[in-house]
Amino acid sequence: MTILSVEQIQSRLLSIFPEGTEQRTYITREMAAKTVFVCLYANAIEGLDRWIRPNQVCRMTEAQAAIMGDAEREKWYVASGKNGFVPPVGVPWFADTTREPIRDETMGDGFLPVRAIIERQGIPTTSSKGRYALEEGFAALFAASLSADDFNVLAVAWRANHLTKTALARQALIAGGALSAGGAVQVQFPNGETRALSAGPSSVIAKAVIEQFATRFLKKPHVLWLSESGNKVVARDERLAATLGIVIDPSKALPDIILVDLGDDAGGSDLLVVFAEVVATDGPINRQRKEALTVVAMDAGFEEEHLAFMTAFMDRSTSQFKKAIVEIAWGSYVWLVSEPDHIIDMRNGTAKKLSELK
Asked: Is 178-357 CATH 1.20.1250.20?
């Protein structure tokens, strides 16, 4: 039986689990591809009653992986599952101590929750017996004979059966954003007007902030200011600014988007002005940025109690989010295009009991 190379398996994993998949790093990295390879090499597939231990992934070598004879593979499978095994050829892929990330991250946090890998039942936790195998439908995705079209059809069907509706929706939103990033991005404002933004991921996020975030989290949203890279002003509502007594000075270090929520109170007690930054590369609202924007806002005529600050990202799994989360300012918000109904409150102030936050 022909087995795909580790590189080919990883390529398919990246397709099976697109951007927006939870724990995507754990189930698409090289370690995950090597885990799938060893399962295939050992015929550890649902229904065959063959199971591997995490340290068998560690014990595989490049030289062994190139040996495809049935007898040789069986000999390796039996021997590598025993304590004290030393690979007969080549250098182990990982040290035996690396089995914990394979067990806890790749399998425990990654493959097992989506049932890409199944766990053997009825054996003690402390048992040294193999306990992991590929789910039958998942294993079928790595058949070397599959054409690209057949693989895509099977992958779509497998995701539909194994991922939650929320996970699928999240992936679809990410994919939609990626497609939109390829051409000019049309943004519809809350008042029905439209504006065109240059192609790119920042514009996709900005569009979502205006069309999705504003309608979900603001009562009566209006776009006061919209700019894009290069400080190009796309929209500026001078009439609304004049009505609110606000002076917008383009020479100031303004955010990408300023939204105004006029609220329900005619007296303006629930007026809220949201300073929003979109992050496709870097530049979240950190402490220094928040302080600078507060000064700009107050100079422009805003009152501090009517200000809110928000940083928008495409998804929690992106490197941009992971890099920026450590510096995002307390007392601000984080919103994700891929999970539009949720918002992260970087709560500031005195500590409260959890029961008081409900």
From this structure: no
Indicate the range of 174-183, 191-200, 257-266 predicted with least confidence: 174-183
Domain boundaries, the chain: 6-163, 178-357
Which residues touch 90 (CB under 8 Å, ≥6 apart)?
A: 61, 62, 63, 64
**CA 297, CA 307: separation in Å to the nearest integer?**
8
| Domain spanning 6-163, CATH class | mainly alpha
User: How many of the other CB atoms lie within 10 Å of CB of 250?
Assistant: 10
Structure tokens at 14: 């990246």
- Residue-wise pLDDT for 235-249, tens only, equals 777 777 777 767 777
Q: Which residues contact 341 (CB under 8 A, 6 or more apart)?
A: 216
Sequence-distant contacts of 179-184: CB under 8 A, at least 24 apart: 180/204, 180/207
Count the neighbouring beta carbons within 10 Å of the beta carbon of residue 318.
20
CA of residue 69 relative to chain centroid, distance: 40
**What does the CA dihedral 271, 221, 238, 279 come to, rounded to 10 degrees?**
100
Task: Tell me 268's DSSP state.
Answer: S
Distance, CA of 286 to CA of 326 (rounded, Å): 9
Q: Is the overall model pTM greater than 0.90, yes or no?
A: no
List, for residues 95-117, the tens digit of each pLDDT value.
888 888 999 999 998 999 889 99
31: three-class secondary structure by DSSP? helix
| Euclidean distance between CA atoms 260 and 274, whole angstroms | 6
CA pair distance 154, 135, nearest whole angstrom: 14
